[in-house]
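Practice problem: predict the structure.
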Amino acid sequence: MKRLLHYELTEELGRGKNGAAFQALDTGLGRAVVVKMLDGDWSRNDRWQQDYRALTEHICVLHHKSVGPMYGLESDDGQVFVVRDFFDGETVADLSTRHMFDYRRFLTVARSVATGLQAVHERGLLHGNVRPTNVWITASGDIVLSDPGLQIPFDSQQIDRYPLSELMYIAPEQFTDAPPTVQTDLYALGVVLYHLLTGEFPFHGDTTRQLQENILAATIEYGGPAGRFAPPEARLLVNKLLSRDLDDRFADADSVRATLAAMQSFTDEQDLDEQPRRRGWTTRQSLFVSMFALLLIIIWFVWGIITD
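Answer:
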């Protein structure tokens, strides 16, 4: 069995943009962890390692239920790797692959991730790695955002170096050399939520240049068997997260969380314990509740314009 320092690798979990990930046993503390190999040249950059270690120190003391613990950046015989907590459960990517859309679950997942991002941002940090594979629904029902900071540094002058699967999450302003901000995390959240709604991604392209052009100019559509049934208020929320205009995009994660809380509250009232369905709501009543939720999100748009 392969070992790295005091970590005994027990099972390969998969391979991603950074390298292979393994379930492992921390033999020093007797706990299950995940060891993620970092095989890119960028991971061996002293500046990146220094910045990531500083980020890990902040995350380790965060102690927030919606943010997965990171245990550190290590190196053994030239192999750089990061260690995080092990989650027993499934990811949003797993749900999307099975097209298991449930509006209540969508709201719960979105609100939990927004809450986790808010906690990260309040410490003056960026997550930088909001992906469907990094949003976990554990066996106990907790929703956890994992792997903060494990993004490939983005250089808009060399986009052909990046896989299409990574470029899908790059915010439009980053293609013009704008530095990452809180709003780039929120854009990535919009991509994740679109994926949860539809099982697809908002923009496509056969080449990096084509994908870049679509991210910068293409219209967001909700096709496919799942997308057609996405509630209008959910579409409007996702569209606001994916706005190319930073003045129209949500300004912070707390605004996203508050909007989702309102949507969740009205959904609970609409279908509390399935009583409305048993009573047989009229079309007018159902339409009224949906329009009210839409109005809440529109107010966020208007408020953002007024306060500029």
